[in-house]
Structures are given as structure tokens and as C-alpha cells.
Amino acid sequence: MPGPVVAIVGAGQAGFQAASSLRQEGFDGRVVLIGDEPGLPYQRPPLSKSYLAGESGLDELWLRPQAFYEKQGIELVAGDAVVSVDRPGHSVRLASGGTIECDHIVLATGARCRALPVPGAELDGVFALRTLADADILRERLARARDVVVVGAGFIGLEFAAVALAAGAAVHVVEVTRHPMGRVVSAQTSRFFTKAHRGWGAAISLGTGVARILGDGRRVTGVETGDGRVLPADLVLICIGVIPNAELAHDAGLTVENGIVVDELLQTGAPAISAIGDCANFPTRFASGRVRLESVQNGVDQAREVAARVAGKRVAPYDKVPWFWSDQRDLKLQIAGITAGHDAAVLRGDPESRGFSVFCFKDGRLLGVESVNRPADHIIARRLLERDPRLSPAQAADESYDLKAHMARPR
Amino acid sequence: MPSITYVHPDGSREALDVPLGTSVMRGAILNGVDGIVAECGGEMMCATCHVYVDEPQLDRMPTQSDDEKAMLEFTASERKPNSRLSCQLVVTPEMDGLVVYLPESQV
Fold it and tell me: Are residues A128 and A230 in the same domain?
């Protein structure tokens, strides 16, 4: 009798981890990992950092070499899309025509870049950055770009801006809100990074959107902002957030609301279908209600949890502390927890020294910590949030108060 | 190419030729050595590429950054004086013959 089959839809970091963890958990049935991009599964974070800058190559991008998949008995189907999944979760259909019969489906479909609906967005020289193919084009075009306009000042936009400046281009960042990275960081951290980028030589326009992208009929020549200015551009990066890839789930009759809705076990309404990573909307004690997170940590930790459950090893509610990072030139931003919705933020350390943390609280409870070049604070914050975040704003702000001792105190 | 030996908790050994300039972590990943996870890809965010460096060879290793020291607080297996993050051990000619011991678990 054939053993059980797990089909993993999406071969990004979460999908890869699910496949790998199934084997680590002793699952001995078939594991089929299906990705619509060609080639081996790779890491996305370097695409806007070291890989984009040409400091690291393809070899450093692969999550594992080809031989790993053979050795682990993971059937990697690359360059083929899943066009439908059935509601009980017993088969997936491929664009190439085949059907894979299975016992469990893991949706790790990720997200795609949101398009900017303005005239001119289709011009040559206007790009998004999500995939290796995107990064390869950008790497080449960046080498000869003179005027770069970045639309959207999130992590990707600012990381790209830092690399573009270092590559010698003039860079102008246009952000529709008043707060760069404002969806994920406090006003203090946002202001610090705005100042840092300006100090490096980038122009940043806040509180204005893009009215249209200008071109000579074929190639981009500039960007017209919402407030009527024309910024010259021979390269435009649109990075205004992502849309979760939830269409397969929707078409299968599963609940979709800002991503694929799952319960605390990361199961959809159909018990044989789970969803993980950027596409999954899940309940967590680290936010008020549900969230959908876009990060390596979230994808990897959720993949491990689902793999353990599917392999029959462990059934536990998903409960990992979220963490994030961003590298912008000599600044390493590390975030533990989800700081959105805080009502108080205190500073530990001095932003002038370029090493500080912002501890964010709500109703006196620690929600999360944003650290810039302060890795020890970040690590302590992860531990605190995991266990018992009973830290007062006054203690957090007092540099002479020993956080490590606080963490180790008996409860 | 310098030869690096990875010793598993059960005592089994894998000796690999790792190119100069590559990290001890990446050398393991590219050659499919189990026991190194490296979920952050070498960004010093996860502490899942923890190794114990053979004690007599410790002084041949690059110095530890504050980032690495902080991350070593977060290893799944016990931190010892010879604990290092293998993503920070970039292979130099002097590292030929290096022996690293893999911990019981990385996560």
C-alpha cells in the first residue's frame, strides 16, 4: 500500500522548510514541493541586500543544493504552477496538465508585489523586486542607472535605496505616508532612518504619492509626484507592499481575508489543507487578533509546526515570537514582536550614537522592541516576549538597569 | 582548498574541501551536511549554525563581533567557550584542517 503524500504548493522559504522539516520529523511518505519559479528554492532577503549589491552570488542564495532534494527524497517540481486544489485537500492540479493525488496540502503560496495603478507603470525601466529574476534585471540595470526613484519607503524600498546610492546613482524615495516603514516601526525609528538616508545623500519626499510615470514612449524618463513635481528617473522601483497569493484557496472555497485564514494550528477550514508564511492569516497573542506576516522567521517557524503535525509528531498551537530584520548600509534594524498599536515608546540608548532600541508598550505591557545596532537588546526582547514580558517602561529606558538579569529573574 | 571536518553528535565525521572565502556554514549547506540549519542565511539573526570549534584551533578563528556574541545567547544547545556561529567563520588558508563539532540541536 502506498504511503501518505504531502503536496506543498510554493517553493519559497516556507515551502522549502515544510518539505525539509517533514523529513526531519520522520515523515516517510512522498513529499512533493511545487514552485512556479525555475531552479532551486532560494532565499529572498539578500535580493534587496547583498545579492543586489553584487556582494554575494547565486551559490550563496540557494537554500540547499540539488543533491539535498535527492538525498531527502523531496520531489521538487520547479517552474510549474498549481492551478487548482480541491476542497477536501486530496489533489492538486498542475499548469502542465498533471494531477498529484495527496493526503495533505500545505499552501505556501507567498505574496506578489502590489502594482501601482498609474499611467506609465508599464514603461521600460519600471520594476518590482520580489523574485530572483527581478533581482537579476535590477542588478544589471542599476549598474548603469543615474537617477533612481523608489516608490514606497518600506523595508524593500529603503534597502534598495541604500544599495542604489552606494552604486553611485542619485536616489529619490517617494512615500505616500509621513512615516517610512511606518506600518512596522515606531515614529522614532522611522524618523531615525529617514534622517540616516538623507544623510547618505538620498532625497526623500513624504506625504506624497505618484501621479504618473513619464516616458519617451518606450523608456521611463521621470516620475510626476502627487504634488506636481517631476523627478528625473531612468530606473523606478515600485515597492508599495504585497498582495497574498490566496486565489487557489479562494477558488477551493476556503476563507480568505487578507490572506488564507487559518486557525491556531495553521489549518484552513479543510483539515487536510494548511497554510503557512506570507499567505497565511493566523491568530496570535503577539497582536490584537489576527495577522499576516511577511518574514523568514514566520515562514520557517510555521513550516516546522505544520510539518510536525502532519508527520504525527506534535499538535500544538503556533506560538512563536515574530522577529524581523533589515540591513541598510551600516544600520542593522532588528525587530522582536509586533510593535504596531503601541501607546508608549521609550528609548534605550542614544540614536546619535547609532545604537539604540525603542521599547514599545501598550497598556504598560511590552509589545515589541526595535533595535538598531543593538543585537543584545534584540535577543533579550525575543526571550522576554517568549516568556514573560513583565518589564516597565522606566526599566527599559534606564541603561543602568540590567536587562539580562531581569530576564533571568525568577518568576 | 582548505579541508574542514564536521563532527556529528554521534561521532561520525565528514571532511570537506571548502573554498577560500566561503563560510564554514555555507560549506556545510552546499555539501548537504546535516546539523547546520542557517535559517537566516548568514545574517546573524537566528543562531542555527552553531558549532563548537576544536579547542586548540580556537585562536585561528576570526574574532567575535558583538552581534555574534549576542546571538550566541540564543543557541538551542548549550553555549560553551568554544561556541561560534559558523556563518562568521570565513575560510582562510590557516583554517586548513579545522575541526568543528555540531551540537545536538539547532532549533
Answer: yes
